[in-house]
Amino acid sequence: AVPVNGSFPANQSSYLNFLIPRSLHTNQTGGIHHRVAHFGAHYYSGNWKDVFMAHPIYYPENYSDFCLFPDEFPSNHSHHPHVPHPHGEWDHDPFFLLVDRGECSYVTKVRNAQRHGAAGVIIADDNKNADHHLPVVKDDGSGHDISIPAMMVSYNDAKKIKDALLPPDDKEHHHFERSVVAEMAWHWPQHEHAVFVSLWHSPVDLKRSEFLSNFSKIALKIHEEDEAKGDKETGGRMHFHAHYSILNGLSMQCKGNAEKEGEPCFDLCTNNGRYCAVGHHSVSGKEVVVESLRRMCVEKHYPGKPWWEYVQHFTHNCLEPKDDEYFANPDCLKDAFSHAGIDQKTIEECMKDSGDVNTDSDNNMLQNEVVAIEEYGILETPYVLVDERPLPRFASLDAKSVMEMFCFSFAPGKAPHVCHACALCGDPVACVSRDPMQCLESDNKHEIPDDSSDSGDNPDKKKKKKKSHHFWRWFFIFSFIAGAGGYVFYKRRMGEGGDGLGSYTLTDAFMSDSA
After folding, report:
1. DSSP state, 78?
2. Which of 120-134, 283-297, 437-451 shows the highest mean pLDDT?
3. 190, 228, 391, 485: least surrounded by Cβ within 10 Å?
4. Is 304 exposed, middle or buried (0-12, 13-18, 19+ CB in 10 A)?
């Protein structure tokens, strides 16, 4: 990797363009319109330093979907001249592979290209009318072994690449005209105004709700700062959007099988089995769907500070004490609305207007969540996107991890003050809770000791090291270099047990003790 040559918009962290032929090159900032995969290099590596790659492109025209590894191609298949044979002259030369969308998952295509020796993959969209709205290049749940980057381009841009690879009539320039060289580049994003944070979760999951409750303290502090600066009308510097783990009842055969006791989906779903959720202990899946819809309406009519205050109060008073007794308790809900300054009638009307939960019809807000889960390929929850980037796989979902990723997505000097005061603190929640905000030495008690200062003879230090092995810890060190952007480094801390929140798969949905 060499220093980035790409020209990045302030809110974009990736770049795609063409060096050869010049007819494919664009001078627009950000290069060719593209969308980066949610798996593979640069997303899950946690390494978002400025890097640049430039290699020739090949297109396996006869098996353009690349759903089979070349060794698995039918025996009568002769390798197209535009794709290097796995045992041919291109074995040791880096190259990008252009493949077509469809027939198998994105991960399968990129994995086959990786096994074939590709340094990166460009996926051609198959929608001729979607030049400006490319789909999410989602993970299928197995993308952890992908170590090369992948980007999608529009159908029309891909066609230009394919046309440039075709042999020309002029034999004198035959070899040169078939050469297409692309450049990919990445850097840490440099937002000037705001960063988007999205979270998929379930309201009944206490550990994830604890994360929300803790992160709400950070979010509320950012909102306070925005209000003081008059940035409230623009949505502030954190644009947060909550998504919910709503299961598609139609695909689970729950429609018409969820209303009566003894039916397979009883008490799991609303709208006659259309929208379902995982329950917990004595909280039914149906009650989880209703609370999810309630929170959608709160976010719609009372975004920002009121939503965070509602969630924080609900977690502490309606979920933590005894969820089976207070989760759907009308008095507890009334207190949460009152605490957050929310008009309960407005929320109830919103829930009815969206399609209600007791009718045998679609609910548009719940349906949007089902569509979003499919669009983004959400296979497990919780799932976080910061500026359209997932947390690295090794990172715990905690307030510190998300805060660091959020704060380091701003251009130098543009991040909220809370980032400068608390982002590098061992316990940023404790830091932002103080007035004025400050990080104390006690907040960093779980940090990995510096080996250079350890004499090896101090038993207390050895005990601390052993104790620290029970925690997952990762952090970024963000250095501002005048005019040069940010560099991000990380440490990974592993150990048995861990303090992360882990993953919640759809398999767990049918192992839950709903009652």
Report:
1. P
2. 283-297
3. 228
4. buried
